[in-house]
Amino acid sequence: MKLSVIILAAGQGTRMKSALPKVMHPIAGKPMLEHVYERSLDLGAADVHIVFGHGGEHLRDYCQDFDVEWVLQEQQLGTAHAVQQASPGLEPDEIVLILYGDVPLIKSETLRQLINHVADDDISLLTVNLEDPAGYGRIIRDEGRVIAIVEHKDATAEQLQVNEVNTGILAVRAGYLNECLSKIDNNNAQGEYYLTDIIEMAVNDGNSVITTQPDNSYEVEGVNDRVQLARLERIKQREIIENIMKNGVTVIDPSRVDVRGELNIGSDSTIDVNCLFEGRVDIGSNVSIGAGCVISNSRIADGCVISPYSIIENAVIDDNVDVGPFARLRPGTTLKQNSKVGNFVEVKNTELGTGSKANHLTYLGDSEIGSNVNIGAGTITCNYDGANKHKTVIKDGAFIGSDTQLVAPVTVGKNATVGAGSTITRDTEDNELTLSRTQQKTVKGWKRPTKG
Length: 452
Ligand code: UD1
Ligand code: MG
Prior knowledge:
By secondary structure, the chain is an alpha/beta fold. 15% of the residues lie in helices and 33% in strands. The protein has a 23-stranded parallel beta sheet that branches. The chain has a seven-stranded mixed beta sheet with strand order 5-4-1-6-10-7-11, sandwiched between helices.
């Protein structure tokens, strides 16, 4: 049967105290709204409608990749009114699932169960038992059957004792939903059109309200402020890290690793404390990620050792490479098999060939470095002349002495040697030693200056 999802996201989110619309605040590096949108895709929804409110127009700009219908709810007159804005285009026989842009951790399995219960004009409702149900609509039952939802502000003292609450998430056939929506009024304590009124209507029409409960109550928790946002962030992180560990990765302290995006990592790899992964990161097997590393949008192959406090962004690293500690790999870095980038080395838009090493205090920018090259400590590729960037080429087997400046564009020949302390401004010959420095001399009898 055809499924449409309506995501309510018109709330102002005033308690976030933010210029950013509430549903755009991220959980695990992705807007809350995107998590909910992805669940709709998991379920194979044919159509997704997002109801947004005034001031939320730029939601559409942020979410340009979403294949959804955007529906403006000019005034927020209640949840039923919000759904009504999206409902005219629905076909009577399709199933409509109502989700919330600020309830980001709902699981597809829970929703699948909910949808499976919809038959005829029955309503399938997600409820949850809460120790502290304050603020929520209470589920009122008679001999076990749901007969109504009473909002906190409309509830009697006796009804307030009920712990089973409405999550707001429900599934219903579109034809019946539309029939009910046209009858809902705003005759209640908040003067709002309550979507929950359809429950009582269904009961009065002789239809059943079938309830499902999620495995975890966090699945239905909403975010109203940044304290709740941080709480759900921790829960989501725990879930991501546990999945990684179940796939055979050692995580020294699961509470001190954050994944803001997608991390794929092979078995027998280890992640030490305080690491952050952003965007799409693919890591192979038997890789060691040391403490305090920040790795974004990169690929690291099997057997690599990334030592502590290395920062890696848009880099591709082949098998058995050593990086760090304190290395910085910037966009466009490729490190070939068995190469090494040591401490205080910055690499940008550079390929470092197989078995080549830059072990200490070096800047390699816009360079093509062959295999088995040794880059001495303090080597700088001077790639920028103040206006343009130029390329440095270092051929296979070259040896660059310490404290060398390679003024690009320049090429160092195959198996060539550059003497320490040289400033190289012209191409060097294959197999030869090139150096540029004044000869060492001793000035006899020279005295250090003294204070006047
Ligand atoms: C609603 C339910 C309540 C349930 C609770 C769970 C109703 C009448 N009440 O109460 O039974 O226990 O959720 O969290 O449905 N929204 C719009 N347009 C509107 C009004 C709301 O898009 O005109 C959106 C909000 O952005 C929010 C969601 O709907 O994401 C819920 O609205 P809110 O006013 O917070 O409902 P509650 O009072 O929490
Ligand atoms: Mg409300």
